[in-house]
Amino acid sequence: MICRVALADELRAAVRAYLAGRPDASWQDFARDVGIAGLLVPEKHGGAGCGAAEMAAVAEELGRVLSPHPFLQSAVMAASAASACGADELLEALAGGTSAAVVLPGDGSLRLDGDVLTGVVPYAMDGELVLAYAGGALVEAVPTARTQYVTMDESRPLQRLHFDHVPVRRLGDGAAWERVRDLGIAALAAEQVGGAQRCLDMAVSHAKSRHQFGRPIGSFQAIKHKLADLLLLVESARSAAGAAARDWVAAAVAGSYCTEAYLTVAGENIQVHGGIGITWEHPAHRYFKRATSDAQLFGPPHAHRARLAPYVLAPAPHSG
């Protein structure tokens, strides 16, 4: 366990340094220089063969700077989907920096007839390749048309995909889609923790430097209490995100809690900053936009709680 934690910390430091030194690096450069594109890909297929701890460390750093890199959809979801069905050639491409988006059941109105895919996906994350769960299978298909959206959160590109009787390449059965979704939720939760921590850091820094009535505003009790509440939210979200990859229950808990925590911290960061917090030049609004868009990515918080309801509210078994 100590070795895994140390590796995750080293990876976190490497990603942070790389993003600081090369903020405009392409996904292919990132894959070549740091290897995060193949983080979850087995070593025999050109990847790093890492696990949930390393995934969370990278995702947190990417969320901290609102990175547009397709780590969530490609390095986590697509790699996990390909691994589950033994698509070795695809795994090697992903590890080399090819990006891919995954369409989950329910994300659109897709119909698979034999080896032909038809339908529309209203909202999908960006990726060179498109992997779709349809008709009980995982397939790779080239969309007939892609429409890029002008989104509120420009750091997370979204697109509309249209498939008009498109031939597919079957990769395997679709039995693993729920696990792929839950790993996506876990990675998103770690991103949300990174963004929330950055918002808290900004709020604390401003509270120390901004003076009113001859004193830093951080010395006022109302600001102290607000920042203490935000710290509790961030640390609780970090705990939830750290366990999110364990199983579907932990993923649903993180999907609900981390989403609401990020929204709250991002909003309160703006409040602590006051007037400057709502200006276009200040980055606070960008984190609030990411928090807002994240809240819809795998469903809103109440959707995650709905998944938990049968588990939480199930009657306790009788003893003896």
From TrEMBL:
Similarity comment: family membership: Belongs to the acyl-CoA dehydrogenase family.
Obligatory cofactor(s): FAD
Domain of life (superkingdom): Bacteria
Keyword Oxidoreductase: yes
UniProt cross-references to SUPFAM superfamilies, sorted A to Z: Acyl-CoA dehydrogenase C-terminal domain-like, Acyl-CoA dehydrogenase NM domain-like
GO molecular function, one term: acyl-CoA dehydrogenase activity
Acyl-CoA dehydrogenase/oxidase C-terminal domain residues: 187-309
Organism: [Actinomadura] parvosata subsp. kistnae
InterPro entries, per the entry: AcylCo_DH-like_C, AcylCo_DH/oxidase_C, AcylCoA_DH/ox_N, AcylCoA_DH/ox_N_sf, AcylCoA_DH/oxidase_NM_dom_sf
Keyword Ligase recorded: no
Domain Acyl-CoA dehydrogenase/oxidase N-terminal residues, every copy: 20-89
UniProt keyword list: FAD, Flavoprotein, Oxidoreductase
Protein name listed in UniProt: Acyl-CoA dehydrogenase
